[in-house]
Design brief:
Three copies of one chain form a homotrimer.
Chain A: E1 7-8, H1 9-16, E2 19-21, E3 27-28, E4 30-31, E5 41-44, H2 51-56, E6 61-64, E7 76-78, H3 82-93, E8 102-103, E9 108-109, E10 114-115, E11 120-121, E12 126-127, E13 132-133, E14 138-139, E15 144-145, E16 150-151, E17 156-157, E18 162-163, E19 168-169, E20 174-175, E21 180-184, E22 188-191, E23 194-197, E24 204-206, E25 211-212, E26 217-220, E27 226-228, E28 233-234, E29 239-240, E30 245-246, E31 251-252, E32 257-258, E33 263-264, E34 269-270, E35 275-276, E36 281-282, E37 286-288, E38 293-294, E39 302-305, E40 311-312, H4 313-324, H5 326-342
Parallel strand pairs in A: 4-5, 5-6, 6-7, 8-11, 9-12, 10-13, 11-14, 12-15, 13-16, 14-17, 15-18, 16-19, 17-20, 18-21, 19-24, 20-25, 21-26, 24-27, 25-28, 26-29, 27-30, 28-31, 29-32, 30-33, 31-34, 32-35, 33-36, 34-37, 35-38, 37-39
Antiparallel strand pairs in A: 1-3, 2-7, 22-23
InterPro entries (chains A, B, C): LpxD, Trimer_LpxA-like_sf, UDP_GlcNAc_AcTrfase_non-rep
Catalytic activity (chains A, B, C): a UDP-3-O-[(3R)-3-hydroxyacyl]-alpha-D-glucosamine + a (3R)-hydroxyacyl-[ACP] = a UDP-2-N,3-O-bis[(3R)-3-hydroxyacyl]-alpha-D-glucosamine + holo-[ACP] + H(+)
Organism (chains A, B, C): Thioflavicoccus mobilis 8321
């Protein structure tokens, strides 16, 4: 995106704490994949299968594992974890622009809001009463920061983020466009056939280093809070119901939905389009594969799955018809077994 | 959220039409769960399993059923439906702030729009030509009210709601941030390999007391209207296709999607992540469980389900492999039965 | 929506290049379905099953296939493809309002942005540095056009569209409210238990005539670009991960999600709520039915399906229990077969 800023390999290796083999005076300005890299590019080899691309790369330098170094025609940065070092190097070359404190004249900021002088409030953004915005915070264009929200230092609201009333945002939190944090959860009592809304007076609390994807929705708690713990990463178009709790460093891929009051532990991975019922307990280190249908608690670590992978439709129609007969088929099998035994 | 306003138990019981047992001069200011309630809190017991929490609560008063009253150390409000009475009491203690009529100076309102003097148009909101906004309506920050929209009395557009052209909104409707009502539906004709858009000239009509969740999308009709009837409650991240009709008091949980021209009856509940094909007829009183795949009409009331609940992945892989062989397994079973019979 | 503009059947037939049978001086002003049409309405018969409605219609004219012409009481426009001709006629009667060049005074446009004098920038829209907006482009209210974006001629950003940095938009592209194009994709490296974000420096490129639905999200590429080719139509609430490629004229229905680096060919149709894993290759002419779970590549054209259609819950519970025993059932069947053979 932004043109990278030039840095010498020597400075980069020192920054990243990795070994440089080759000319430290060579400078790189941006990252690129091996096959498309130019001499001003830094690239990386994360998977040995691409070693032939390595041998022919025009990159100015490559991050790779020790065993691959000899195959590279360019200077190398050697590490046991090339992907992680590449992540850091790429951020070094393509940093977010520095946050310059101030309030755009088109923003509408309530007099009672407390904006740190080192925070930026972008154009056409609304900051409501009693909100607090910490140092180094970037609030992009078109955001809404509701009454009483608190945003911790160095967090980024990229653009068009909606924080409803009272949302508590930690430090270095990254909120993507269109996410809606803290809307009133889906809670109703029945009065005959009619639904009566139950006021939702809890809040949403996001820990440090949390990330929330584009157009994702996180509902506020009914009475207690909805909590997303430090380091959790939530992708796009995800629904998190009221009073859910997501543990530290748990990652959820796009299109998943979690019903109210379900608690997910630490270091879990939830693949795309997973659905979870409410009031479940998911332990630490649980992994659900894509489109899993989670209808009970899974307290133990492990990998869990469900769903039928796609197949040719004609074949699928036959299997589905048999699925509906499964109970009958099982009974018939039992009958056959009994008959055989009797003979 | 907002600090509650104090009210005596005597006044509250009269308001709610329930029996008070205890000191009517005691005042409460907010709601809380039994275990965290302070003496200024109103709490409730909805489920007898929590009776031990009731016995130890510090709440100033508790809403509960007649049979539980003797176990409560505090004054009680007695009712056969504690959850419903709690919903009403909570709204009494935590009301929406009153709507003060006016237009924020940063809003952009077309000269031909008709805004009731008792309606509020919030900051950075756009109201287009010929739109009508009724008395007591709250249009929060960052909304777009398209040309020719009509919004009935006392409706709330919380924030960042988009009403496309011509949307008809009933009274006391609640629209959450990010919802998009009335975009042109997904209708195309084929011209060889190319798709040609079919103009969508119908509207969306939302009945009284409808609620639409955050980032939900409701498409406008192709020629006739898309209709959501009075009292229907639609959660977050739901897609409602063009020309769908949703019956009165039907509730849909998050992440569901309904294809075009499907009609759902009254008093249905659609759990999370349900998918429905188009042109179906779903009767009154139909209930779909989470992630149900609805590919045919269900005219009769009842509970319907589909999907395979998650299980350990190794076990799942074996079952899936067998699923693909189901038709063959059924044929082999039949063969075995025939052989046995022949013996 | 907008009142149509009157046109005579003679002019309409000439415009559309179809045969008129009847009085060419008759004028129509809007489209309607056969059963509700008034004499100023144009209607169409796309499906012969509705022929009885045709015989009783009050429409001023009807578009239909040659074999149906004799059954119509009104003048007819005759074509082999009534639905396609109707699409074009409806656009002729209900055109988008012409785009009048200019910038609304409430918009915030960076000095370095290049706005064609024939483009419209709507109220409360932000256009950031170095963005380019072509002739005839309509940017509706509340949009954000990020730094360095390029928008081709005659594209429409209906309202509240977010283009992140560097998005390349072709000509005649239609972007619906709430879509977020070009957010940083979901890419992380692991540092022990913590996730480290990998900067996403690719872009999103949308070809000519692409359409993106409401609240849909398209992530930008990690290093290379995410690409949606000309004529592709993407519905609401869809997630397209980083580095995906969608082929020409492929259509995707609402609520689907595609994980990163998956490539879909030309002329595919993806029904609603389909989930696709990452790094797959889907060929040209592939069709997935609703809620399909796509976990492997499908290079060959064809129709593919998965999922269990909804059934009464009691029946479903029994079938699911048996599903978990499937591997055991298959082994028992094999055992029975072997025993029989041995007898």
């Amino acid at each position: 995106m932004t043109a990278g800023s030039a840095i010498t390999l020597g400075a980069l290796a020192a920054d990243l704490g990795v070994e440089l083999r080759g000319d430290g005076a060579v400078a790189v300005t941006r990252v690129a994949v091996l096959t498309q890299a130019e001499p001003d590019c830094l690239s990386f080899l994360g998977d040995r299968r691409y070693r032939s691309a390595l041998e022919r790369t025009r990159a100015g330098a490559v991050i790779l594992a020790p065993g691959d170094a000899q195959h590279c025609p360019a200077p190398v940065l050697v590490t046991e974890n090339p992907y992680l070092v590449f992540a850091r190097a790429a951020r070094r070359l393509h940093p977010y622009p520095p946050v310059v404190g101030g309030v755009h004249p088109s923003a509408v900021v309530d007099d009672s809001a407390r904006i740190d002088p080192g925070a930026w409030i972008g154009p056409l953004t609304v900051v409501e009463a009693e909100a607090e915005v910490g140092p180094g915070v970037f609030v992009g264009p078109g955001c809404i920061v509701g009454a009483g929200c608190v945003i911790g230092a160095e967090s980024r609201l990229v653009a068009r983020v909606t924080l409803c009333e009272g949302v508590q945002v930690g430090r270095r939190v990254l909120l993507h466009p269109g996410c809606v944090i803290g809307r009133e959860g889906f809670g109703f009592a029945k009065d005959g056939e009619r639904w009566v809304r139950i006021p939702q007076i809890g809040r949403v609390r996001l820990g440090d280093d949390v990330e929330i994807g584009a157009n994702t929705t996180v509902d506020r708690g009914a009475i207690d809070d909805t909590v997303i713990a430090a380091g959790a990463k939530i992708d796009n178009l995800i629904q998190i119901g009221h009073n859910c709790e997501i543990g530290e460093n748990t990652a959820m891929a796009a299109c998943s939905g979690i019903s109210g009051s379900t608690r997910i532990g630490r270091n879990c991975t939830i693949a795309g389009a997973v659905g979870m019922a409410g009031h479940l307990e998911i332990g630490d280190g649980v992994h659900f594969t894509g489109m899993a249908m989670v209808t009970r608690s899974f307290p133990e670590p492990g990998v869990y799955s469900s769903g039928i992978p796609a197949m040719p439709s004609a074949e699928w129609r036959r299997a589905v018809a048999r699925f509906r007969q499964l109970d009958e088929l099982a009974r018939r099998l039992k009958h056959v077994e009994d008959e055989l035994k009797a003979k």
